[in-house]
């Protein structure tokens, strides 16, 4: 086999190994159910990781991840490819998480937005760096839990999953401008919680 033939052969093999999601989606839609296992294998860590970050509980996260793939399989024929398949999966995961969080009342109450101000955010923001990082991490976790379910998910997607505003808009069904506003308000709610609960620690370091 000459070098040209070997190169062509390697390219063909590489192409077969790099079949994209759409190939497997078409396979499943056309009746090859086994092809769905490729999509599960590829995205299960992503779906489970997002589920765990949102629900903070391994049992709930496993349940949500399983439900996500079941719903994805059942709805696969409706996937039109307008967004990435991963974004479509994120949306199914998001909807499932919101339902669970509201049902199980993980978001107990929201903070009074009228008490928020830019001064609160700037003041607490400049002093948080002085607080013990372990204490701060625990306080941030508690602050997240005080947010309404949909705000928790927006913060998770934007800050922990590094999703772009445009992708979050696809996932949640909100407009990009609405996503920005809600993330900004959620951040301010978290700052107010931190100000109220870390005030003594914050001002002790000054």
List keywords for this structure.
206 residues, 2 domains, 75% helix, disordered C terminus, Arc Repressor Mutant, subunit A, 10 helices, Rna Polymerase Sigma Factor, Chain: A, mainly alpha, disordered N terminus
Describe this structure in words.
By secondary structure, the protein is mainly α. The protein has 2 domains: 3-103, Rna Polymerase Sigma Factor, Chain: A (Orthogonal Bundle), CATH 1.10.1740; 113-204, Orthogonal Bundle (Arc Repressor Mutant, subunit A), CATH 1.10.10.10. The protein is built from 10 helices and no strands. Helix 5 crosses helix 9 (165-172), helix 7 (133-146) packs across helix 10 (176-204) and helix 8 (149-160) packs across helix 10 (176-204). The radius of gyration is 22 Å and the shape is elongated. It starts with a helix and ends with a helix.
CATH architectural label of the largest domain: Orthogonal Bundle
N-to-C CA distance: 75 Å
Largest β sheet strand count, sense and barrel closure = none
Global shape: elongated
Number of DSSP helices? Answer: 10
Total domain count: 2
Mean pLDDT: 76
Approximately how much helix is present in the residues?
Answer: over 70%
Radius of gyration of CA atoms, rounded to a whole number: 22 Å
Order of helices and strands: HHHHHHHHHH
Family: Belongs to the sigma-70 factor family. ECF subfamily.
Keywords: DNA-binding, Sigma factor, Transcription, Transcription regulation
Organism: Sunxiuqinia elliptica
GO molecular function: DNA binding; sigma factor activity
């Amino acid at each position: 086999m000459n070098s040209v033939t070997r190169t062509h052969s390697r390219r063909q093999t590489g192409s077969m190994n790099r079949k994209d999601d759409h190939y497997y989606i078409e396979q499943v839609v056309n009746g090859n159910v086994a092809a769905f296992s490729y999509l599960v294998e590829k995205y299960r860590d992503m779906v489970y990781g997002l589920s765990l970050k949102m629900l903070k509980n391994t049992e709930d996260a496993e349940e949500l991840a399983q439900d996500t793939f079941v719903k994805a399989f059942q709805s696969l024929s409706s996937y039109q490819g307008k967004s990435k398949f991963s974004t479509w999966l994120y949306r199914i995961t998001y909807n499932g998480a919101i339902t669970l969080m509201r049902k199980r009342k993980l978001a107990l109450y929201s903070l009074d937005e009228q008490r928020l101000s830019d001064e609160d955010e700037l003041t607490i923001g400049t002093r948080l760096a002085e607080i013990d990082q372990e204490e701060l991490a625990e306080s941030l976790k508690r602050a997240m839990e005080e947010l309404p379910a949909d705000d928790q998910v927006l913060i998770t997607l934007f800050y922990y999953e590094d999703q772009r505003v445009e992708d979050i808009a696809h996932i949640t069904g909100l407009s990009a401008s609405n996503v920005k506003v809600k993330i900004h308000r959620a951040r301010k709610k978290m700052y107010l919680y931190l100000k109220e609960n870390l005030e003594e620690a914050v001002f002790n370091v000054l």
